[in-house]
Amino acid sequence: MFFIKxxxxxxxxxxxxxxxxxxxxxxxxxxxxxxxxxxxxxxxLFIGNSVLAFNLLKRGSPEVAAEVLGKTWVPxxxxxxxxxxxxxxRGILALQVKDLDGALYDLSVANELGLKTPLDNALNALxxxxxxxxKKDKLKTVEFxxxxxxxQLNDLMLKEKIxxxxxxxxxxxx
Length: 174
Known about the structure:
Number of strands: 0
Oligomer: single chain
Helix content: over 70%
Radius of gyration: 21 Å
Structural class: mainly alpha
Shape: elongated
């Protein structure tokens, strides 16, 4: 957390050191500082904090996850896998505050981009099904429940949630 909180200041300090070394020692010495600075900026722009925020969310720290996710500079520049986890995490956080439309948007973007593991993809599909169930859209609920089941995972909690959603869907049909 320390590095994330102070990362912009560290980057500015690295730029200042690089310029100082350039002026006092010359470009051949300063080039290393410039490279490190550009590497830090590139990591921030293209890698970001999305996976860290996702892991914090999995560990049960949604407030900290939201804070870390909020420190992502330009989400549209993130590489595909990081952008998927950025939207997945934002979607889960939106679900927790009952912002169904925001959650649906972010989870749908994560669904289109594709998450890294089958379990994460199944959880994403199950959450989208849950949103459509809350909106009383039976067809979309069934579609995303089938998608969640298609990953054929051995995760007992996931199977239990899918079965629970199917039972609720049957009650809704009556």
